[in-house]
Amino acid sequence: MTLEEEETVKRFVRHAVPALLAAVIAVATPSVAAQGVALRVGYAEVLSLARRRSPEAVAAERRVEVTRSGVAAARPWLQENPSVGFVAGPRFRTTDRVTDVYVTLGVPLEVYGVRGLRLGAAEGAVARDQALRDDAARRATAAALDAYHGALHAAALRDAAEAQRTLAADIVRVAEARRSAGEAGDLDLLAARVELARAGRAVAEADAGVAAADAALRFALGLDADQALSLAGALDEVRSRYAAADVPAAAGVRPDLHAAELSLAVTQEEVALEERRRLPVPTLQLSYQREEGADVYLAGLALPLPFFQRNQGPVAEAHARLGLLAAERHFLRRRAATEVVAARARLDAAHEGLRLLEADALPNLGATVRLVQRAYELGQADLTRVLVVRQQAAETRREHLDALLEVALAGTAFDAARGVFR
After folding, report:
1. What is the CATH code of the structural domain delimited by 37-83+115-279+330-418?
2. 70-84: per-residue pLDDT in tens?
3. What is the torsion angle, in degrees rounded to the nearest 10, for the CA atoms of residue 264, residue 266, residue 271 and residue 277?
């Protein structure tokens, strides 16, 4: 290798190799960065993801594809293939021998409009399963919204528990200061430290609740465990979203009711199809014979005699299934109407409970806690009173969060009962 060639190789290594490495890193970097991007999930995102990615919705979509294959099976003009027969053999005569040949072709004929009924039943089954898919999406959306509101509730409880731990730490500091000043004994300090330990345990319990709620939300939305996830929205937004005055009382058209109607229509098609199959199916027969040197062409029809088998079993089963589906549709309508009434009553009760808490309990809660803690600092109240007031405040805040969650769950149940989500 000459000096000029060596210099060329060195320039390539010095300039080209870093450029190639930079290109490889640039290609790989977006995928790595994408893995670290958190998916921000709010109310609208939950609606979208639940309908597309929840296990129930995905399985229902696959069932539609399976049912759609039945349309392809029902589309051919004949459900049975033509049959061909061939027979040949020698015929021995006194003077010579000839070969006889028999060729037959049988073609079963589908008459009486059987193909149209069969195809109509298959297409109706697809429409029914599409309605069932929509109903699966309705139920999956309700479950996902419950999980979403549960996650918001768990996060709010975690924040409240952390605030209580901060307050307990402040009480410990005040108790230590008063003990150092000779204004309080060891009992106050020990009680304050016990309360701080209990507050720490409450935070740990709230952390576990957040983890459980996060797992439930991931499963409801069909998300992977390693997908970074962050919540958007706040629990108190449900107050306006599910305001009683903004919710119509009339039930909408639920997809499960639509599916029940379609199931009944499909079964009616199947009943008509099985009734037509009572009739004997003719078979067109064509034959060619080579007999004793002569060509013979024959054509005819074969018709089975329905003396014993007249499709009694399938007809009876189809009629029984029709009666069953009619009864199920009736009870489903009644249940849907009852669910709407019950969900509306639950939503009204949840709003009333929230109103009572926010009108009478919450406004003066924070001021009461601050006043009694200040009174303890000044020696005007004992620690027992501080702890009692603090416990009442913590329980009231938790009840308020529970009341907000109940409004969210009741509102979701009402929307699911109506079949329309806002």
Report:
1. 1.20.1600.10
2. 999 888 888 888 999
3. 180
